[in-house]
Each structure stands twice: as C-alpha cells, then as structure tokens.
From TrEMBL:
PANTHER family on file: DHBP SYNTHASE RIBB-LIKE ALPHA/BETA DOMAIN-CONTAINING PROTEIN, THREONYLCARBAMOYL-AMP SYNTHASE
Domain of life: Bacteria
Protein name: Threonylcarbamoyl-AMP synthase
Pfam families in UniProt: Sua5_yciO_yrdC (PF01300)
Domain YrdC-like: 14-200
InterPro entries in alphabetical order: DHBP_synth_RibB-like_a/b_dom, Sua5-like_dom, SUA5_domain
Length: 206
C-alpha cells in the first residue's frame, strides 16, 4: 500500500520532504507533482525502479527516461552540451521542457537510449519538486505518469493513490500540479527537433 504524503504547495513541510527523500534513497518508487503533470520517480541508479516504471507504463527499452534536475549545474553533469544548445536550454529552464541530449559517463548505461546513447533532462519550475530535489541532492529518474491506453496524464494525487496503491510506494500530493506533459526537444544532433508538443511553448525551437 502506497504511503500518502500531503504537503503545502508553496511551503512544503521540510520533515515530510525529508521522509520522501529518505524513501527514495531506500529504493521507493513515488508519484510526485511537477509543473507539467505527475511523474513517477526513483533513485538514479535503481534498476528495480526502472523496471517498475517500465511495467507500470508498458515501456520498451527505446523509451527516453528523464533525469529531473534541481538546477543547470546539476544538469551539466549528466549531458554533453555545446554553446549554442547551452544558450537555448538555459533560456528555457526552469520550465515545462524535456531536452534529449548525449549522455555523459555519469549516466548509467541502462538509462541511455540503446543506440543513440542519449538521455532526457529537465529542470522543473515547481516549488515542491524543487524542495524534494534539494533534499535528495541528486536528480530523480523519472517518467510522465501516463498510463497505457490513456491520452491524458494523471494530475490528482488522491486518484493516483486510489488507482496505483499497490504499484507505487508513495504519492506526494501538493494539490498544485500542471495538467499536461512537457514539450520534448531533441538536441542530440545539434539541431532542435520537437518530439512532443506539450506544456512548454514549442515556438522558440521552431
């Protein structure tokens, strides 16, 4: 049964955030809110977490997982980024964008696209997510909480607790959450390719 963590959207309780971070370090898979929509998250190197996310979402090994980072300095540890791309990404973060970029050696091989050796990265503009990332001290390995056969991602913590009670270990609910997935921009070739149009304005990359 999933543990339910209820926090204030603007001033999340430090003790609760600390409990969630500790659970993640211990291998928990959690559902948490972002500026785009809810996501599934686990510790960066958790093979079990990855497999559980794949199972929940029915994903194959070509799916790009996302490293949700606290800030640009952290993001830069996990992806290679040239000056032109740097400027474009920096100008759009934090925000509802996911960027696909070549992975560095800091990214476990199991997270990289098997052929392209790329990974998704993003910096969310969400108080609760940022508090969790600050407490965790490392990126969250994440994927949009979009269930198989459904077109809309889940956006209500209580509904997630009800439907995924025996699938995830915890649900972090702040009541405030985006309602659409991120806009995904692939920069792996050096040029912007919009892979998915979502919450972030895609026009700046067209």
């Amino acid at each position: 049964m999933a543990k339910y963590y209820d926090v204030h959207p603007d001033n999340p309780q430090p003790r609760t955030i600390s409990q969630v971070a500790a659970a993640i370090r211990d291998g928990a898979l959690i559902a948490y809110p972002t500026d785009s929509c809810y996501a599934l998250g686990c510790r960066l190197g958790s093979r079990d977490g990855i497999e559980r996310i794949r199972t929940v979402r029915h994903l194959d090994d070509r799916h790009h997982f996302t490293l949700v980072c606290q800030d640009f300095a952290q993001l830069g540890q996990f992806v290679r980024i040239d000056n032109d791309v740097f400027r474009a990404v920096k100008a759009s973060t934090p925000g509802s964008y996911t960027f696909i970029l070549p992975a560095t050696k800091e990214v476990p091989r199991m997270l990289q696209h098997p052929k392209k050796k790329t990974v998704g990265v993003r910096i969310p503009d969400h108080v609760v997510t940022q508090a969790l990332l600050a407490e965790l001290g490392e990126p969250l390995l994440s994927s949009t909480l979009l269930l198989p056969g459904e077109e809309e991602p889940m956006t209500q913590g209580w509904e997630i607790k009800d439907r995924l009670d025996h699938v995830v270990d915890g649900v972090l609910d702040s009541g405030e959450c985006g309602t659409g997935p991120t806009t995904v921009v692939d920069f792996s070739s050096g040029e912007a390719e919009i892979v998915r149009r979502g919450a972030g304005d895609p026009s700046r990359f067209e």
